[in-house]
Amino acid sequence: MSKAIQPVRGMNDVLPDEMPLWRHVEDTARAIFAAYGYGEMRLPLLEKTELFARSIGEVTDIVEKEMYTFEDRSGESLTLRPEATAGMVRAGISNGLLHNQIQRLWCTGPMFRHERPQKGRYRQFHQLNVEAYGLTGPGIDAEMILMSARLWRALGVADLVRLEINSLGTPAARATYRDTLVAYLRRREAELDEDSRRRLVTNPLRVLDSKNPEMRAVIAEAPSILDYLDDESRRHFDELCALLTDNGVQFRVNPRLVRGLDYYTRTVFEWLTDRLGAQDAVCSGGRYDGLVELLGGQPTPAIGWAAGIERLVELVREHGKPPPADLPHVYFAAVGAAAERAACTLAERLRDRGLRVVLNTGAGGFKAQLRRADRSGAAYAVVLGDDEAARRVAGVKPLRERGEQQEMPWDALAEYLLRCCLGS
Ligand code: HAM
C-alpha cells in the first residue's frame, strides 16, 4: 500500500457533521447583512502580490512573513488572499462601484496566512467580511458595530464577547503620535524584547500589540494615542461612542488597540472572547479612509470588519445556540430486488414533497438496515420487502419515539410522513 497523502498543515477539512453549524453561522450572517442592505460579492482567491503589499503594508507580519506568494506560469507574482479588504477595494475600483457612490458590500470565503497553526489559528481560515464605502460620518461606524452585535445575539454568543474600540486619528495625527511613542520607547529601550526593538524601527505602533507579558508595563505606561487626535477625529470618536451607548452596546476604549494592518484611520475595533484560549479575536475591523486612493481610485471613505468563521463556529458549538441538525426525516430500508426497485421510486416521491430521505445502499437484511437507519438519525424508517412490494404497501416505524410499526398503502405514505415530520 502506498503512503497516504497528508493534508497541508493548518488547512482543515470541514466534515458533514460540522456543516450544519457552519451553515447556521453563514446563513444567520447572510440574513443579517441583507437586513442592513448589504449586497454579496464573490472575489478571486488570487490577486497580484503588489495589491497586498501596498494595502496591508510592507512592514506588517502578514506581508513580511505570512503570505502564500508564488510566480505563475507567466512569471507574474501572485498571492493567495490573506484577507478580503484589499481585494474588495481592488474589485470596487476595477468595476466602477466606488466613485461618488455609497456601497454596502459583503463577502465570505477562505483566506490564507502562513502563521504557526494552533487552536483557532489556521493557515486556511474563513471570514465573513463586510465593507461600506462613501460614508464619512460616525453613523456607518455605529451601523457596522451594531450589525456585528446583532449577529452575536442571533448566534447566542453575545454574552461571550466584549467590544474594544479606539481611534487612530488621521495619518497626520498618527505621525505626531508615532514620534512621541518612538521617543518614549527609546527611553525604555532596555526593557524592550527583540521583536519590539525591531518594530521600534519598522512599525513602532505595533509595539503596543506585543503579547509578551514582560512588555506589559512599558505598554501600559506608553502615551495614549487618544491624547494626540486631531479635533475632527476626536469628534468622530465621541459621536460613535454616543451612538453605541444610545443603542445599548457596551464597549471599552482601549488606546493600545492598533491593529496589525497599516490601512486603518480613525475608528478601529475588535470583539474579543475569553473562551477560545490564546486566539481571542472573533471579529476585527475599522475605518480605512485612505486605501481606495492608495490603490488608484478616487478618495473614498471606507469602513469594514471581518469575523473568523472557525472561531465563531467554535464559540457556538461550545457555548451558543447550536442549530437543529439537518437529519433525515426518513430512512428507507428495502430487502429483495422488487422492493429495492420500488423503494427508489417511492423515495423520490417523498423527496418531491420536501422530505429528506436516505435510501439504504449496500446489502444487508432488515436488522442491519434498521441499525443503519437508527445511526442515520432519521425520525422514521420505511420498511419494504418483496412481499410488501407485491401488495403495494410499506411498513412505517418510528425511530425516535415509542410506537409500533404500521403498514400502509404506498399512496398514503407521503401524506402520513409529511404530517409526522413537518406537521403539514
Ligand atoms: P484581521 O484582524 O486580520 O482583519 O482578521 C479578522 C478576523 O479573522 C480575526 O478577528 C479572526 O477572527 C480571524 N482570523 C485572522 N487570522 C486568522 C487565522 N490565522 N485563523 C483563524 N482565524 C483568523 C482583517 O482581515 C481585516 N481585513 C478586517 C477588515 C475588514 N477591516 C476592514 N474591513
Q: Your description of this structure?
A:
Helix content is 39%, strand content 21%. With 424 residues, the chain is an alpha+beta fold. A hairpin with a 5-residue loop joins β3 (68-71) and β4 (77-80). α1 packs antiparallel against α5 (138-155), α1 (19-35) crosses α11 and α5 packs parallel to α9 (231-246). The mean pLDDT is 95. The protein binds histidyl-adenosine monophosphate. Residues 83-85, 113, 115, 121-122, 125, 127, 129, 131, 261, 281-286, 304-308, 310-311 line the site of histidyl-adenosine monophosphate (HAM).
| Bound ligands | histidyl-adenosine monophosphate
Mean pLDDT: 95
Main sheet summary: 8 strands, mixed
**Using only CA atoms, what is the Rg?**
28 Å
Task: Give the number of DSSP strands.
Answer: 16
Distance between the termini: 53 Å
Stretches where pLDDT falls below 50 for ≥5 residues? none
Content-based structural category: alpha+beta
Count, helices: 15
Helix content: 25-40%
**How are the strands of the largest sheet arranged?**
1-5-6-11-10-9-7-8
Shape: elongated
Beta content comes to 15-25%
